[in-house]
Amino acid sequence: MFNYRIIKRAQRPKQLLDFSASLCYPSRVCSRRWMSARPEERQVVGITPPRKKVTIQHLQALRTSRTPITMLTAYDFPTGRACEAHGVDITLVGDSLAQVCLGYDSTTRLTLDEMLHHIRAVARGSHVPLLIADMPFGTYHASPEDAVRNAVRMVREGGADAVKLEGGLELVDTVRRLTSVGIPVMAHVGLLPQRHVALSGYRTQGRDAESALGVLRSALALEEAGAFAVLLEAIPHVLATYITQRLRHAPTIGIGAGPGTDGQVLVWDDLMGTWHGHQAKFVRRFADVKSEVEKGIRAYSEAVRERSFPASTESYEMPKAQWERFQQLVEGDAAKDA
Ligand code: KIV
To answer: Domain of life, per the record (predicted)?
Structure first.
């Protein structure tokens, strides 16, 4: 940075003189304050007519009419905003955020405070979809009272509409308690990532008859306890279709559970292709964001290094008279200092 106070006219850097020659002066432009990151308009664009808030009743109506339900994870304001703007039915603040956003090696590392921070950000962007958040590992296991206390924080401080819990029959009392105080619960059965160590890895569940029966019993018992929907992860498609038919009213949402469920969910980063690492069998990449990001960063760095960015059209102007006055002031200061 130049210290203009001590630079005499003859010593002024060439860039400064060149710059003064290239001034243009629309004062309206000069007086406006621009931010590179400004909040978007709150209005939902791209959806006509504007959508109504998605309710549990609406999801049940979709199930009855056999209209597939779309659910997608979101972890911050922009991803929440995208779910809102592009017609997703359910936004899930999944605890996969531990891995895809926070760089932990397992969802079991995520704390309730970290989750709350992200639910709040998503909630600011996603108003219309039903907003569900995963209860982090350890926040609903000690007792149903503990689960209620923590779920209340997720609703009250975070802005979640409902919570999702991973587990089976052992959660029946907890689901009953939560729903009895008005906190809607989505049950999550099949592969339970929070138990990946106990399960010896992220393995498909319900592949043999006994374990398939276990998954079915869990889904039926959790619906009976009050769960408004059941997420089925990584189970054979015939089993998922069967469970979907056996449940009385709760829609099923599948991930790695085939086409026979009432809806589908994917992790944002898997769908968008924000990374090119391991791809589970059930993941389809619907976009290639990683390549776009790479292209963008390379082009930006190149433009900075060859000084083609920023161009004069990407820079602010100063009225010529103000620039000349500024130079006089600098000279006055320099003369005083001499
Ligand atoms: O945390 C998560 O992303 C999930 C998936 C099953 C969608 O729960």
So the answer is: Eukaryota
For the Cβ of 255 lying below 6 angstroms from any atom of ligand 1, the answer is: yes
Q: Which of 48-57, 134-143, 223-232, 314-323 has the lowest mean pLDDT?
A: 48-57
Please compute the mean of the pLDDT values over residues 69-98 and round it to a whole number.
Answer: 98
96 Cα nearest atom in ligand 1: 1
Answer yes or no: do 146 and 233 share one domain. Answer: yes
94 within 8 A of 113, measured Cβ to Cβ:
no
How many residues appear in the chain? 338
Tell whether 162 and 272 lie within a shared domain: yes
Domain co-membership, 134 together with 265: yes
| Tens digits of residue pLDDT in 307-336 | 999 999 999 999 999 999 999 999 999 999
- For residue 69, the one-letter residue type is I
Report the C-alpha gap between 71 and 68 in whole angstroms: 10
Query: What is the pLDDT at residue 198?
Result: 87
Q: How many structural domains are present in the chain?
A: 3
User: In angstroms, rounded to a whole number, what is the distance separating the alpha carbons of residues 179 and 228?
Assistant: 9
Same domain, 88 and 65: yes
Q: Which of 91, 267, 268, 272 to mutate to test the pocket of ligand 1 (most atoms within 8 A of CB)?
A: 267
Active-site residue set: 233
Residue 241 Cβ contacting ligand 1 at under 6 Å: no
Whether 188 and 328 map to the same domain: the answer is: no
Phi, psi of 59 (to 5 degrees): -65, -40
Q: Is the CB of 98 under 6 A from ligand 1?
A: no
Burial 252-290 (b: 16+ CB within 10 A, else e): bbbbbbbebbbbbbbbbbbbbbbeeeeeeebbebeeebb
Nearest to 243 by CA among 265, 229, 261: 261
pLDDT at 217 (0 to 100): 98
Q: What is the pLDDT of residues 164-197, one digit of tens each?
A: 999 999 999 999 999 999 999 999 999 999 999 8
| Residues 323, 215 share a domain | no
pLDDT digits (tens, 9 = 90+) for 244-256: 999 999 999 999 9
Report pLDDT for 213: 98
